[in-house]
Amino acid sequence: MDGIEHKLNPQIFVRLRRSTIVRIEQIKELHPLFNGEFVVVLKDDTKLSSSRRYRQNLAALLKS
């Protein structure tokens, strides 16, 4: 997964977990949890969870 992540444009894709990379434009909502993780809701209402390891990726999205 690391190899794939490095080939993708970080302005288009974001990594949520060791096994999950999503297209940023498909993210509808971010809900921070108390432990540094996020619930990510996609435009099709799929709910994904992020891990604390990748929280800086989602925190950067919240700032933009």
Topology overview:
Layout: H1 2-7, E1 13-17, E2 20-23, E3 27-32, E4 38-42, E5 47-49, H2 55-63
Radius of gyration: 11 Å
Mean pLDDT: 90
Unreliable spans are none
Order of strands, widest sheet: 3-4-5
The number of E-state strands comes to 5
Structural domain tally: 1
Which term fits the overall shape? globular
> What share of residues are in beta strands?
35-45%
Structural class: alpha+beta
Number of helices: 2
Q: Which percent range fits the helix content? A: 10-25%
Largest sheet: 3 strands, antiparallel
How do the SSEs run, as a string of H and E? HEEEEEH
The termini sit apart by: 25 Å
Descriptive notes:
The protein has about 60 residues and is of the alpha+beta class. The chain has one domain (about 1-64). The chain has two helices and five strands. The strands form two sheets. A three-stranded antiparallel beta sheet has the order 3-4-5, with helices on one face. The chain has a two-stranded antiparallel sheet with strand order 1-2. The model has no long low-confidence stretch (mean pLDDT about 90).
